[in-house]
């Protein structure tokens, strides 16, 4: 029989009020405070349920679990509790949600981001980064955002000193993720890594599991009180060691992303740590650890004689953004009149993927068909050199284009140009005449259809000039002749290197 003086549904509000002074409290203090709130007699305070346990304490423990899962409170697992920043926000701004049947709405309360708001948030991030003294090409931040939204693994490639690592750090800071709060983690890759033990962990000689760097981050990110916060893991100089040797396990686990429930409200993966040879205590701590939906991996790479190339397995699973643009004269950040935007606090859903399969994108069927048609044409050019794409790349490109269509960050043409650069061209390399012909076909694909570029071997033709005399071609000429300008410039560079060296690759610098 229930206690008529209170209902479990109403307990979240008085529970959080006990913690609102931002100090730690014991669960016993919560029991007593709620008993006082509802003026329970001693008999009512210790009334037993059918299991012989205190009804009040059972109800309060149930509510504690729900509040922790929603990120409203945290604890040490030993009975000491405290309120989280999200809990304070809900208690202050939306106390009406602090009922058991309303807690499901808390996740949307953190920051309900509408599609039309995303572009302005991305512009805020760009302004924050510029205020810190870094200037990137016009579409870089929007492209980086769309790439992370598409899949939580992005590669930033380019010559040393172009700000790749700094971009990741400042992007994270613009969203409130810092080294100090544990939401930004920089991991320098070592050349001697040949397995994932440094990242995932290992079992020592005593049988105790020693968690690796990434496992420690995942353990924190997966806590209910942190589940709405974005966590960034930056693998610096990722290709100093062979990525396939030390990161392949995590790449495979990322590919196991699936919806945890029918409502598609949460993404989960297979577990990260093998339970073999682990103690029972370690199994209880790490056995169910997976890559949560609020964790994002970014690798920075320099392509030189000290580094290793990427396999197609890695390239298939990431957007590869090239950084070779530097404008040393852009010093606008020195202007004292420019205001530095504050970091913005957003729910991790700002970055979390909304799509895992093309079936999830059924509201954008026409766009998917158009993009797939373009990719099918590109595949015809890639097939002779065995570099054609499969379903994984097709889906990733379609997701990227759909997000861009929703958020209006880039034009459709620029967005597809980015995908051509990031998902297609890194696959092309070799010394055969077929490679050269593939690049010519792709360059013509990038051109505006109404333009006759002429013959490559004719020194007076536009095609020849764009490839061998690019410095003499103005930006207007590039944009007048090509739909996909960034891709056209990269292809021209790759063709020029083929002519000079008899071999070409996206990665040559």
UniProtKB/TrEMBL annotation:
Residues 13-92 form the Restriction system protein Mrr-like N-terminal domain. Coiled coil: none annotated. It comes from Tumebacillus flagellatus. It holds the Pfam family AAA_5. GO terms for molecular function: ATP binding; ATP hydrolysis activity. Residues 154-317 form the ATPase dynein-related AAA domain. This is ATPase dynein-related AAA domain-containing protein.
């Amino acid at each position: 029989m229930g206690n008529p003086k209170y209902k479990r549904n109403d307990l979240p509000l008085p529970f959080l009020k006990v913690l609102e002074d931002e100090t730690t409290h014991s669960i016993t203090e919560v029991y007593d405070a709620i008993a006082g709130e509802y003026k329970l007699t001693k008999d009512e305070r210790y009334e037993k349920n059918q299991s012989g346990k205190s009804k009040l304490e059972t109800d309060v423990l149930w509510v504690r679990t729900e509040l922790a899962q929603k990120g409203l409170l945290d604890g040490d697992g030993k009975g000491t509790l405290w309120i989280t920043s999200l809990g304070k926000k809900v208690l202050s701004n939306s106390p009406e949600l602090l009922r058991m049947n309303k807690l499901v709405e808390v996740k949307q309360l953190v920051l309900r981001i509408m599609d039309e708001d995303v572009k302005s948030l991305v512009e805020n991030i760009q302004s924050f980064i510029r205020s810190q003294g870094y200037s990137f090409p016009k579409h870089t931040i929007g492209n980086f955002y769309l790439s992370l939204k598409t899949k939580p693994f992005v590669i930033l490639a380019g010559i040393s000193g172009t700000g790749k690592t700094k971009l990741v750090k400042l992007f994270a800071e613009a969203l409130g993720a810092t080294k100090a709060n544990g939401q930004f983690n920089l991991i320098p890759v070592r050349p001697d890594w040949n397995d994932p033990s440094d990242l995932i962990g290992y079992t020592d000689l005593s049988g105790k599991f020693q968690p690796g760097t990434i496992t420690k981050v995942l353990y924190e990110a997966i806590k209910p009180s942190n589940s709405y916060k974005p966590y960034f893991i930056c693998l610096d100089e990722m290709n100093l060691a062979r990525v396939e040797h030390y990161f392949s396990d995590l790449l495979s686990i990322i590919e196991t992303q699936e919806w945890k429930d029918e409502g598609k409200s949460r993404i989960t993966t297979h577990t990260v740590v093998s339970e073999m040879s682990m103690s029972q205590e370690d199994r209880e701590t790490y056995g169910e650890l997976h890559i949560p939906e609020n964790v994002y991996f970014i690798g920075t790479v320099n392509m030189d004689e000290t580094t290793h190339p990427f396999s197609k397995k890695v390239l298939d699973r990431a957007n590869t953004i090239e950084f070779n643009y530097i404008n040393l004269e852009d010093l606008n950040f020195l202007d004292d009149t420019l205001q530095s935007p504050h970091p913005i606090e957003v729910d991790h859903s700002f970055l979390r993927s909304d799509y895992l399969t093309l079936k999830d994108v059924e509201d954008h069927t026409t766009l998917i068909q158009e993009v797939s048609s373009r990719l099918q044409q590109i595949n015809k050019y890639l097939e002779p050199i065995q570099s054609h794409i499969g379903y994984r790349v097709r889906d990733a490109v379609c997701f990227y284009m759909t997000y861009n269509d929703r958020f209006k960050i880039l034009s459709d043409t620029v967005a597809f140009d980015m995908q051509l650069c990031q998902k297609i061209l890194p696959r092309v390399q070799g010394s055969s005449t077929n490679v050269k012909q593939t690049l010519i076909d792709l360059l013509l694909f990038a051109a505006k259809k109404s333009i006759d570029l002429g013959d490559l071997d004719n020194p007076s033709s536009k095609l020849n000039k764009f490839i061998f005399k690019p410095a003499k071609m103005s930006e207007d000429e590039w944009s007048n002749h090509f739909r996909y300008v960034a891709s056209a410039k990269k292809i021209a560079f790759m063709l020029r290197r083929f002519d000079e060296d008899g071999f070409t690759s996206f990665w040559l610098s």
